[in-house]
């Protein structure tokens, strides 16, 4: 087994992708089936047919992803990691599937520029922006001093969850 964290992560992504492809194929070829599942190397995925994703579900999933990213963000990020996070936020503000949400996020970015100097700075910025969104939705404010307790770092073997945004240069790849 390789000790290269990027290679390990790519293997994991490949395994998940393969499982999801099987599920989608099963779903397309058996429209009457209400549940699909597959198991591969201790990984079980169950998908139930339901209505399309709601705006609320999409928002919760997005915030889960962003806060998890913030929890993994390094204390001393590289210049590339800082650029990547800023670009990700910019892309989200333009490409988010909910147009009203995307427009609101663009306005938030103008009044609250992304803070990427450190783990603490980025995770606190995310918490603040999330609270601004929650306030606009009439939801409760989350106490940002508890952000690390709520969204602690992922525990992964051999540091495979650590961000390594500067290890691979994708600029030279052809698409």
Automatic annotation (TrEMBL):
<keyword id="KW-0285">Flavoprotein</keyword>
<dbReference type="GO" id="GO:0016971">
    <property type="term" value="F:flavin-dependent sulfhydryl oxidase activity"/>
</dbReference>
<dbReference type="Pfam" id="PF04777">
    <property type="entry name" value="Evr1_Alr"/>
</dbReference>
<dbReference type="GO" id="GO:0005739">
    <property type="term" value="C:mitochondrion"/>
</dbReference>
<feature type="domain" description="ERV/ALR sulfhydryl oxidase">
    <location>
        <begin position="51"/>
        <end position="151"/>
    </location>
</feature>
<dbReference type="GO" id="GO:0050660">
    <property type="term" value="F:flavin adenine dinucleotide binding"/>
</dbReference>
<dbReference type="InterPro" id="IPR017905">
    <property type="entry name" value="ERV/ALR_sulphydryl_oxidase"/>
</dbReference>
<dbReference type="InterPro" id="IPR036774">
    <property type="entry name" value="ERV/ALR_sulphydryl_oxid_sf"/>
</dbReference>
<dbReference type="InterPro" id="IPR039799">
    <property type="entry name" value="ALR/ERV"/>
</dbReference>
<keyword id="KW-0274">FAD</keyword>
<keyword id="KW-0560">Oxidoreductase</keyword>
<keyword id="KW-1015">Disulfide bond</keyword>
<protein>
    <recommendedName>
        <fullName>Sulfhydryl oxidase</fullName>
        <ecNumber>1.8.3.2</ecNumber>
    </recommendedName>
</protein>
<comment type="function">
    <text>FAD-dependent sulfhydryl oxidase that catalyzes disulfide bond formation. Oxidizes thioredoxin in vitro. Required for the import and folding of small cysteine-containing proteins in the mitochondrial intermembrane space, and can act independently of the oxidoreductase MIA40. Can oxidize the cytochrome c oxidase assembly protein COX19, a typical substrate of MIA40.</text>
</comment>
């Amino acid at each position: 087994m390789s000790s290269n964290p990027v290679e390990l992560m790519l293997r994991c992504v490949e395994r998940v992708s393969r499982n999801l492809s099987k599920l989608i194929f099963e779903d397309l070829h058996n429209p009457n089936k209400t549940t699909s599942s597959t198991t591969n190397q201790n990984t079980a995925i169950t998908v139930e047919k339901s209505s399309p994703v709601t705006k609320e579900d999409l928002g919760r999933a997005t915030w889960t992803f962003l806060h998890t990213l913030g929890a993994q963000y390094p204390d001393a990020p590289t210049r590339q990691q800082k650029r990547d996070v800023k670009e990700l936020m910019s892309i989200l503000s333009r490409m988010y599937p909910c147009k009203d949400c995307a427009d609101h996020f663009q306005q938030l970015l103008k009044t609250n520029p992304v803070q990427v100097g450190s783990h603490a700075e980025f995770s606190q910025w995310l918490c603040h922006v999330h609270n601004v969104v929650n306030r606009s939705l009439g939801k409760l404010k989350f106490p940002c001093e508890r952000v690390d307790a709520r969204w602690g770092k992922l525990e992964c073997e051999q540091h495979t969850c650590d961000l390594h945004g500067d290890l691979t240069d994708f600029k030279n790849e052809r698409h």
